[in-house]
Amino acid sequence: MQPNQIDLERIQQAAHLMARLWSDEPSKHDQHACNKWRAADPDNEKAWQCLIQAQAHFGDAPKETIQIIARSRKMSRRHVLSLMGLSAGGLFFAGGYIHNWSISSHASYYKNLATATGEVRSFPLSDINKLVMNTKTTLAMPTEHQFKLDDGEFFLDVSQATPYQIETMDGTISFHQGKLNIRRTDDITRVSVFSGQNVQLIGKQMHNPLSIKPGESISFNTLNTSRISNTDPNTIGWVTGKLVAQRMPLTDFIHELSRYRKGIVRVAPELRQLAVTGVFSIDNTDQILQQLQASLPINIYQLTPYWVNVTAS
Amino acid sequence: MNRDLQLQFTQLYEMHQGWLSNFLRKRLNCSHKAADLMQDTYLKVLVSGKIPPTEYARQYLTCIAKGLVVDQYRRWRIEQAYLESISHLPEEHHSSPEKRLEVIETLIEIDTLLHQVSEKARQAFLLRRLEGLSYSDIAVQLNVSISSVEKYIAKALQACAIAMMERHK
C-alpha cells in the first residue's frame, strides 16, 4: 500500500467513523454506516487500513506511556526545577532517599553530625526549621545558633527567624531566615541564597564583610571572593535525592557524581567537551554511569567497584 | 547514482559541510552527535535524489538539519522521561538494556505520531487506546463533554495516520 496516495479527506472521514465506533455505545446504525463507507470505494478502505496501520505500535506501549509522554513534553529547564519542587519557590522534603531523622522530637541542636558517602540526611532544628546534610559532610553545632562545617555541604531551611552563624575554614557566614546552601569542597566555600533575608560573610583575612541577596551565590576563601552569580536551583537537587545537570561538562559531572560514590572515578580530560543534561537519582551511582555510557560516546571500565575509568569510545 | 548526480552531491558536500558542522555543533553542544547528524543530513539528500539548486542549498540543508536536531531533542526528552519513570523502581524490576531500547523506540514512535495533536486530544486518545477508558470516564477526567472526547479521538486518529504517511513519503 502507498499511504501517501490516500487523500486527506478520506482519512478525516475514516477517523470520524472510527471515533464513533470507539464510543461507549455505538449504535447498529453507526456500525452499518461505517461498513457501507468502507465498501463504497477501495480508497475508503485504504484510508481505514491506514488508520489501523498507524496504530501498529500502540500495542507495545509500556504501562506508563501517558505519564512518560506528558512528562517529556514538559521537559525543559522549568520542568527540571519543578521536578525538584522548586518552581514555586518552596522545597518539599520528600522522596524515598531522604531519611527523616528525629533524634529527639524537640532537638534544636546536635553536637556532632556526620554523613557517610552517598548519604543525605535531614534533621529538624525546631518545629519548622530544618537542616539537610549532603554526602561526606562533617558538621558540628557548638551552640544552638552556631554551625561549624569542616567539609561537605548542607542546606538550611529556616522559616522561624533565628540568628545562625556558620563557620568554615575560610570564614564566617551570618544568616537569619530563608533557604541557604553552604558547600565547602575543593578548598573553597560556596554560599547560595535561595530565599529569605540577605546573608553576610567575611573571609578570615578580609577586612570588610560582604552581603549577598536572595537569588545570589558566591564562592570565597580566606582572602578572596568570586564574582556574585545567580543561584542555580539545580545545585540543590541533592536535597531531594537528585543530581541535576544542565549542559554540564562530563568531567564536572563525574566530579559531582564521585562525591556520592566510594572509591575513585577517573575521567579522561578530553571528555570535557561532552555535555550532560538530565535528572539522576544519586542513590544509585552505578545506574548513572550506565545511563551515561548508553547516551554518550564513552566507555566505562570498572576495574573494581572502587576504581572506575571513563574514556572516549 | 548517475555521474552527474554524484558530482553535484560531492560539490554540495564540499561547499557546505564546514558551516553545517558548526551549525550542528552549536545546537547540540557535542561534536560526536553533530558529526552523526551531518551524515544523516546528507544521507537524506542522497535518498531523496534531489540536489537543491546552489542558491537554495544552504536553506535546504538547514531545514533538514533543524528537523534532525528537533528529532534528536524529542528523543532525548523521551529517554529522560522514561529513565526518570523507572528510576523509582527497585532494581529487580529493571529490564535489560535491549528491552529498554525497544520500549524507548516505541515511546518515540507514539510521541512522533501524536506530535501535532493538542494536549487534551493526545490524552483522550491515549486513555482510550492504552487504558481502555470509556468516553464518559475520559470526559470526567479531562473535564470536557463526551462529544468533545469523540472529536479529540477523531483528531488524534487522523493525525496519527497523517504523521505515518509523512514518514513514508
From TrEMBL, chain A:
Gene3D superfamilies according to UniProt: 2.60.120.1440, 3.55.50.30
Keyword Secreted: no
All copies of domain FecR N-terminal, residue ranges: 12-49
Annotated keywords: Membrane, Transmembrane, Transmembrane helix
InterPro entries attached to this UniProt entry: FecR, FecR_N, Ferrdict_sens_TM
Domain FecR protein: 113-197
GO molecular function, one term: sigma factor antagonist activity
Coiled-coil boundaries: none
Highest taxon of the lineage: Bacteria
Transmembrane segments: 80-98
PANTHER family, A to Z: PERIPLASMIC SIGNAL SENSOR AND SIGMA FACTOR ACTIVATOR FECR-RELATED, PROTEIN FECR
Name the record gives this protein: FecR family protein
Organism: Marinomonas polaris DSM 16579
Automatic annotation (TrEMBL), chain B:
Keywords, comma-separated and alphabetical: Sigma factor, Transcription, Transcription regulation
InterPro entries listed in its UniProt record: RNA_pol_sigma-70-like, RNA_pol_sigma-70_dom, RNA_pol_sigma70_r2, RNA_pol_sigma70_r4_t2, RNA_pol_sigma_r2, RNA_pol_sigma_r3/r4-like, WH-like_DNA-bd_sf
CDD domains: Sigma70_r4
Keyword Cell cycle: no
Domain RNA polymerase sigma-70 region: 12-75
Matches recorded under Pfam families: Sigma70_r2 (PF04542), Sigma70_r4_2 (PF08281)
Top-rank taxon, per record: Bacteria
Domain RNA polymerase sigma factor 70 region 4 type: 109-160
One Gene Ontology biological process: DNA-templated transcription initiation
GO molecular function: DNA binding; sigma factor activity
Keyword check for Protease: no
PANTHER family noted in UniProt: RNA POLYMERASE ECF-TYPE SIGMA FACTO (PTHR43133), RNA POLYMERASE SIGMA FACTOR FECI-RELATED (PTHR43133:SF63)
Homology family: Belongs to the sigma-70 factor family. ECF subfamily.
Protein name in the entry: RNA polymerase sigma-70 factor, ECF subfamily
Organism of origin: Marinomonas polaris DSM 16579
